Structure formats: C-alpha cells, structure tokens
Amino acid sequence: MKHKPLIQILNLLSVKGLGPQRVRSIISHFGVDSEIFSLSSESLCAVPGVDLKTTQAIHRHKHPNYGEAEIDRSNKSGARIITFWDDEYPKLLKKIYDPPVLLYVKGQPLKREMDCISVVGTRNISAYGKGITMSVVATMVSSGLIVVSGLARGVDSVAHRKTVNDGGKTVAVLGNGIDFVYPTENTKLAEQIMENGTVISEFSIGTQPNAINFPQRNRIISGLSHGTIVIEAGNRSGAILTALNAVDQNREVFAVPGRLTDKMSVGCNRLIRNGAIPVESGDQIMDHIKNQLFSPRDPIQQKIKLHLTKEEHALIDLLEDDPLFIDDIVSKGGLEITKALTLLLKLELKGAVVQLSGKQFARA
Fold first, then answer.
1. For 38-48, what is the mean pLDDT?
2. Rounded distance, CA 296 to CA 326, Å?
3. Which among 301, 302, 300, 258 is positioned nearest to 279, based on CA atoms?
4. Which of 21, 127, 210, 253 makes a 20 to 30 Å CA pair with 284?
5. What domains are defined for the chain?
C-alpha cells in the first residue's frame, strides 16, 4: 500500500474507542485514498456503526505522527505492513468474521491464495504427540500445503521445525509485536521459518505477549487455513479455542484421538464427541480438504507389494482397466470358470481386482 494511506490507517487504529471493525467499515466506505480525518461528522455518520461520539473521537485525535513512527519502527525491525485492502492479504483470512485490519510480516511475502493447514496443540507435548505431529506435518509438506501454527512450545514448535527440516513452508502467527520472538528459545526457529516461510502478527510494534493476546491470535491461525488439526490438548488448552474459532469460520476441525486416561487427550476426545473429524494420518486430512484447495493436488500413487502367484499374475495380465465379463476372461485365458472365479476372489481379497455388477472384473 502507498505510504500515505497506510499512515492514515495506522492513525485510525490508534483512535481510542474506534476499533478495527469500524476502521474497516470507514475505509471500505470511503476508500483508502480518502482524507478520513478531514471528513465532516455528517459524512462519517453515514457509515454503519459510526455515531457522533465516534466522529468526535476521530476529530480529537492527538497523535497524527503515530502512523509514520509505527512504519519507522516496523522497518527497523525488518517487517513490512500489509493491510486488508492489499493484494497480498490472504483470501481465506479476509473471509472470517473479524479479520485483522493489518498484518506485520517478516520473511517471505504472503499470497492471496494460500493452501494452508493449521497444526495446534498442547505445550506439554508427549512422545506420542510428537510422533503424530511429525507424521501429519510430513504428509502436509509432501502435499505442498503451508503449515500454520503459533510458535509456542510443544506442538507448535514441533510442527514448525518439522516443516522447516522437510523443506516446506510454514507461517508462524505471534501473540506479540513482530519485533521480538516469544518464547525467546524459538528465536533461531523463527529465523529458519523466514527463509522459506513467514512470521506475522497483527499487534503493533512493542506489544508484549500478554495472555489476552493469544485468543485473538488464535483466530488468525484458524482463519488462514482450510482446516485445523488438534494433536494433543488438555481440558483448558488454547488449542481448543483455535478449534472453536475454526468452527465459527466454517472450516474443518480434525482431532487426533487419545487414550481416555491421558490428560493431554481430554480436549481432543471432547472435540471428537462434539463433531470434530477423528484422524490417524495426514492422508485422511488431505482426503477431506482436497476439493477446497486453491491449487488441486494430484493423488499420490502408492506402490503395494501384492505377493501374487504365477497363476494370479497370469490372470492379472489378462485383465484390463475396463471391466471384462467372466465369460470373456475364461475365453481369453483358457481357464475353467470355477478356477477363474477362485483366482479372481483371491485377487479381490488382495486388493488387485475389483468386482462389478454382472460378474465383471477389472484391475484395481
């Protein structure tokens, strides 16, 4: 976005009591190039949700240099600022109920159409949870999806690190200003993420990682994604809030089942009872979201060793992709019908042959 409109948006966000929803409404109504602070109260009140008290707050704004200073602070931290009206702003995020007016971005640029999947869970990850996280993420990366998480300890860190190690793209959404990393132990990980992926935040420079920020951050994690995967989650885990955000945003929610006696599986099991999709592998997740992707993925063909006998191999060679009637198979192979049906049944059980109506058979 041009420098001057961005300054104005930042200044509007700093108006006490205005709030991001009204800022979006005002800018969308008048356009990004309008001189909002110069508009009359009558003009501003034409915007839904804007009353006389709000217009007075805009006209009394005492920090006209805030926007310029915030851009300088952002530049010094190595970040750039994109707004709701920029082409770089992700399409899926724009669709949620309360999308951020702006995002501070470090690393690789965001794109309008991004095929993302969120991976979230407990900070107290178990060996089981770590193994599942790495397995699921490996499938997402090999399928070309972008893995989104919150750079917290536990599941988040494992998901980001596995993506980086596998050469994939990952987006880390912070619950603080983008000028530092919390927890500090993930500073190196954040640098690695930015080589191929992105670190983002909606919070102004210098914002501390206060508890109130993280529920707000979580809606961005789910909002960027086609679906949210909860790996492990305790009874009061923040990952559950992210899943609930996904439900509100009409996105898929996946949960990994766990033992009934495991405290870190309480949240996942509860999500499943309430309608989340239970999953054991990344392939199951891909099956659910493949039709939603901006860039469709071709299915991965897996080679299966069937351990066929010579007779079974000979019969497979007779079959075609298009189905053949049993009489044609018997005629082509010079087989007795009983022998042919026996072999076909064995091949069907091995997954090498499919039987269709009318005693028709084809290669699986």
1. 95
2. 37
3. 258
4. 127
5. 1-76 (1.10.150), 107-292 (3.40.50.450), 310-363 (1.10.10.10)
